């Protein structure tokens, strides 16, 4: 379970997309949101776009593993695909905010690795949001106002990656994934491996 969070515009969706394209082991958890769909987004692929009443029905039926209000809209992680992935041992990527990361940590514990993506500066964050040209000036201002409060949660994450040069940041994320997979996959077998080695040396 890999959680990516960042203030809006820092580049987490870009890094998530690169990871999904280059690493076939990852599946994206497609969130449900009440936010308006952007022109570049496809329903069911980037998000499941739902009305507020439909979201509330899902939430009240406990169909969401976690949910939060972010920038005035509701967002939530559908429970069924995430739990299936956890059960199957599938690597899953969650693009969720700090509130979601906290809730997920409580639910999945050590099986979760979290990365907080920082922009090089708040000015650059503003420029990226403008250049992305997907949100109105008002929406961009709300996101920038919220950025400081989101960044304040950086210490709660396992890793921090500063997304200045995209290539460098992506390689750092790949390195984290590689190291964490090695730890997960190698650790369980190491006890027997080392015991056997020591037993053999005792015989010699
Ligand atoms: N808690 C939670 N946060 C989510 C979920 N899906 C998206 N988010 C977060 O909601 C925030 C806004 O996302 P979005 O509207 O796509 O804007 P963007 O971050 O500017 O691309 C981001 O911080 C996302 O990580 C979710 O299922 N749960
Ligand atoms: N390292 C970078 N340098 C310059 N622009 C970037 C970089 N990373 C991402 N971007 C651009 O910044 C904008 C915001 O990135 P995005 O991935 O949508 O952010 P988020 O998902 O965190 O809101 C996009 O237009 C993206 O192409």
UniProtKB/TrEMBL annotation:
* Keyword Heme appears in the UniProt entry: no
Q: Does the keyword S-adenosyl-L-methionine apply?
A: no
The GO molecular function terms of this record are: ATP binding; GMP kinase activity
Chain ranges of the Guanylate kinase-like domain: 1-178
Summarize where ATP binds, as residue positions: 6-13
SUPFAM superfamilies the UniProt entry points to: P-loop containing nucleoside triphosphate hydrolases (SSF52540)
Instruction: Recite the UniProt keywords alphabetically.
Output: ATP-binding, Cytoplasm, Kinase, Nucleotide-binding, Transferase
Its subcellular locations are:
Cytoplasm
Q: Which InterPro entries match?
A: GK/Ca_channel_bsu, Guanylate_kin-like_dom, Guanylate_kinase, Guanylate_kinase_CS, P-loop_NTPase
Q: What is the main EC category here?
A: transferase
Its GO CC terms?
Answer: cytosol
Record field: catalytic activity: GMP + ATP = GDP + ADP
Reported EC number(s) for this entry are 2.7.4.8
Q: Which HAMAP family does its entry note?
A: Guanylate_kinase
Function (record text): Essential for recycling GMP and indirectly, cGMP.
Q: Which NCBIfam families match?
A: guanyl_kin
Task: Say which family it is in.
Answer: Belongs to the guanylate kinase family.
**Protein name (Swiss-Prot/TrEMBL):** Guanylate kinase
Q: Which organism is it from?
A: Notoacmeibacter marinus
């Amino acid at each position: 379970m890999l959680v990516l969070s960042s203030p809006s515009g820092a580049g987490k969706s870009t890094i998530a997309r690169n990871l999904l394209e280059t690493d076939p082991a990852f599946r994206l958890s497609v969130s449900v949101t009440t936010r308006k769909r952007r022109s570049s987004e496809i329903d069911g692929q980037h998000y499941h776009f739902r009305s507020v009443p439909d979201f509330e029905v899902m939430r009240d039926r406990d169909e969401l593993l976690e949910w939060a209000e972010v920038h005035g809209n509701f967002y939530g992680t559908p429970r069924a695909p995430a739990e299936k992935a956890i059960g199957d041992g599938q690597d899953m990527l969650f693009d969720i905010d700090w509130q979601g990361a906290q809730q997920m940590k409580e639910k999945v514990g050590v099986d979760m690795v979290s990365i907080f993506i920082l922009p090089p500066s708040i000015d650059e964050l503003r420029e990226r949001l403008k250049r992305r040209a997907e949100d109105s000036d008002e929406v961009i201002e709300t996101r920038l106002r919220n950025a400081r409060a989101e960044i304040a949660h950086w210490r709660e994450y396992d890793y921090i990656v500063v997304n200045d040069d995209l290539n460098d940041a992506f390689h750092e994320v790949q390195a984290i994934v590689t190291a964490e997979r090695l730890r997960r996959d190698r650790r369980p077998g190491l006890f027997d491996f080392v015991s056997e080695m020591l037993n053999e040396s005792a015989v010699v």
